[in-house]
Design a protein that fits this description.
The structure is a single chain. By secondary structure, this protein is α+β, with helices and mostly antiparallel strands. The chain has 2 domains: 40 residues; 175 residues, Beta Barrel (OB fold (Dihydrolipoamide Acetyltransferase, E2P)). It is built from 4 helices and 7 strands. The chain has a 5-stranded mixed β-barrel. Strand 3 and strand 4 form a beta hairpin. Helix 1 packs across helix 4. It is globular.
Amino acid sequence: MKNKAISIFVFIGILVMISMVSISSTVGARDLHDSQDSDAGCELDFAGSARKAVKLRKPGQHYRKQNDGDPITVADFLSLVCGLESKVVKPVPATRPMNVEKLEVTIDAFIIAMKQDPDDDFHIQIADEPNAAADQIIVEVPPGDPYCDARQNAHQLFLDDGGGSLTKHVFDSPPKVEITGYLFLDSVHGQTRLCKNNGGRGMHINDNTSHVKGLWEIHPVIALRSIN
């Protein structure tokens, strides 16, 4: 009888230990995920106001896909947007996308530089060549759950390149990525010469000059992945 009682206590003790390990593992996994989100800033709120509703369009808009969804280049993108000026509504609406912006675009390019803007978007400059002097466009990844996977992937590429400050990070080894998002006109910086004038946008890299072309962006980015 005594042995039976000891066996029951031992069994209960084992169950308690298993439960504690399981709880600890679950908490650890949750803490790790929360930490990853925090590093990438997924939990932040978008702090901007200019054309906010357009910048924060959610995935799944069912827009027409440029090139049937197949990736284009930065040069292709610039060629595309240089034919759109006549389709831009003046003044550009602040609270809704123009019809011309209802377009999903996928681009294969190299990330030249990135930073976290004051509105908490990831501002990323991409080019067709891993060269800071190449023609570049801006793509932006907002904070928030709908964009978190893309944001975490961008942040991991930043870490893989050595990390440092997100005030401004120029990649030593620009990674090649596939980026998908919605066409956006950053009209706050200008409403004429839209594919030529960059409105003072873009980081100055090496030669103290911005190589960003035009006022068109991909914003928001809804997917970003590394490719070979």
